[in-house]
Each structure stands twice: as C-alpha cells, then as structure tokens.
Design brief:
With about 80 residues, the chain is of the alpha+beta class. It has a single domain, classed as Alpha-Beta Plaits (2-Layer Sandwich), CATH 3.30.70. The protein has 2 helices and 5 strands, in the order βαβββαβ. It has helices at about 20-25, 55-65, and strands at about 5-10, 30, 40, 45-50, 70-75. A 3-stranded antiparallel β-sheet has the order 4-1-5, covered by helices on one side. It has a two-stranded antiparallel sheet with strand order 2-3.
C-alpha cells in the first residue's frame, strides 16, 4: 500500500456519547475504557489504519451516531 492509500482514523472525544459501535466494528484498533468510551489501542486521538482494515474503519465511522470518528487520507 502506498502512502497515498494510507488513512488515519481520528477521534473527537468531545462528540462521543459512548455508544461503543466503533469498538464492536474495529476491535483490532479500538477498545472501550471502564465508562464505555473508545480508546485507540495505540493511544492518542488518531491512529493509522493498517493495510486490510480500511473497510472496517469506514464502517466504524459510518456507524458512529454522533460523528465522533473521522477518516482522513494521507497526502
């Protein structure tokens, strides 16, 4: 995968209502804290999407009812 195909998943914790759909759809990258809020396994508020998980990441973004997740492409 070239850098043009690589994507980053971003989390805006101020929008999140802890529905947990993202962790169900993308458990390889997201788990829930003790209150049900998502945490990227790698830490921080953004994580690179590994090859092969782009479809799952798109599904998680689409499933978020409050728009707390955003997917960006690397330039």
């Amino acid at each position: 995968m070239s850098t043009h195909d690589q994507r980053t998943l971003h989390l805006d914790p101020t929008l999140c209502d802890a529905h947990g759909f993202c962790a169900e759809l993308l458990p390889e990258l997201i788990h829930l804290d003790e209150w049900g809020y998502p945490i990227f396994t790698a830490g921080g508020l953004a994580t690179d999407i590994p090859h092969g998980l782009t479809s799952e990441a798109k599904r998680a973004v689409t499933a978020c009812p409050v728009g707390a997740l955003r997917l960006t492409k690397h330039a």
